[in-house]
Structure formats: structure tokens, C-alpha cells
Amino acid sequence: MTYFADVAALARKDILLELRSRDTLPAMLLFVVSALVVFHFSLPSDASAAASTGLLWIALLFTALLGLGRAFAAEREQRVLDGLVLAPCDRSAIWLAKCLGVLVFLGVAEAVALPAYALFFEPVGWELVAAVVLADLGLAAVGTLLAAMAAASRARELLLPLLFLPLVIPVVVGGVGATVVDDPARYLGFLALYDLIFAILSWASFEYVVAE
């Protein structure tokens, strides 16, 4: 119970900081809506559903990257991460709390993005919603680990995209596949397997990442 209490306290801290500073979430909302507006006017009127779905996933992916770039900003600027690492709690609790915070921000951004997508392109089906939920889990799990790695680097703005984008290509493949095929179960299962594998790997390796 102490472990989950630590996770809850750390996640609550991140969410309260964002509510007070409003640094990350407004930028994510503005970016994803702006991207969809640009895609709407740049995509031909006779474009296929697969094309519009692919553009949606690109917008969601870069929105997640924008949020992850700020995931450890407060700790880095105030040098709080060293204190968290030295605190008498499991270091993986930091990873899990950050994941929860990222998931909350992604959920809010997508609560705006999906209706905007339905307005500009086509109705949103349950397949897309299920794929987005599963994708969020994988993006948060992998992205939080990589954001922690990049936070210690001077070139973090360059390092994070270079590490993050290749690892989340399967998320885009699974998300687009689940949306455009007649039987999305296979792709949704693929996304769930990706989430499980990378969540375990990220949870287990986070301690060694922050120790370095």
C-alpha cells in the first residue's frame, strides 16, 4: 500500500503543478487542434479514410511527444529529480506516477482531438476509441522512460524524438490497422501486447535509468 500511496502522491503533485502553471496541457490542445485544421485543408476532398486516419495518428503521436518533452521539466529546472531518487520510495513509483500524469494529459487532449477529427473528417467509431486508449498506455510507458533518459542530456529536445519515434512505430501501425480493417481485434490485441511488454520493460529498467 505504501508503494501505491507514493505513486498517488507523486501523480497528484504533477497534475496540481500543471493546473497551476498551465504550461503543458494548453500547448498540447492547441497543437493537436491546429494540426487537424491544417490536415483538413491540405488533404484532398476525395482522400480515403485510411489517409485521414493516418494523419490523426501523426497528430496524436506528436502531441504525446510535446507532452513528454515537458514531463520532467519541473524536476529538471528545480533539480528535484535528485531528491526523488534519494527519497525512501521505490524508484519505479516515480515512473508509474509520471505515466499516470502523462495519461491524464493525453486523455484531455484526445477528448478534444477526437470530436475535432469527427467534425473535420469522419465519425469516430469504437475501434478508434479503443485503439487510442491502448495506444496511450504504450506511449506513456515508453515515453516516460525515454523522457527520463533525455532529461539528463543537454540535447534533450533532439534526443527524445530520436529515441521515441522509432520505438512507437508499432503503435501507429496498430492504431491505423485497428481503424481501417473490418476485423480490428488482431490489431487491438497487438497494441495490448505492445503495452504489456514495454510497460514491464520500462517499469523494470527505470531504476537503472535514473541511477545513471
Task: Explain the overall architecture.
This protein is an all-alpha fold and 212 residues long. The chain has one domain (2-211). The chain contains 10 helices and no strands. Helix 2 runs parallel beside helix 6 (91-120), helix 3 packs parallel to helix 7 and helix 9 packs antiparallel against helix 10 (185-211). 36% of the residues are buried.
How are the SSEs ordered, and which strands pair?
Blueprint: H1 2-21, H2 25-42, H3 49-69, H4 73-78, H5 81-86, H6 91-120, H7 126-151, H8 156-167, H9 169-180, H10 185-211
Helix pairs in contact: 1-6, 2-3, 2-6, 3-6, 3-7, 3-9, 6-7, 6-10, 7-8, 7-9, 7-10, 9-10
Task: For the structure shown, list the relevant keywords.
212 residues; globular; 84% helix; single chain; 10 helices; 0% strand
- Helix content range: over 70%
**Helix- and strand-based class?**
mainly alpha
Radius of gyration: 17 Å
Task: Quote the beta fraction.
Answer: under 5%
Number of domains: 1
Gross geometry? globular
Largest sheet: none
Secondary-structure element order, N to C: HHHHHHHHHH
The overall pLDDT average reads 86
Our measurement of the CA-to-CA distance between the termini, rounded to an integer number of angstroms, reads 28 Å
Number of discrete helical segments: 10
Number of extended strands: 0
- Pick out the low-confidence regions: none
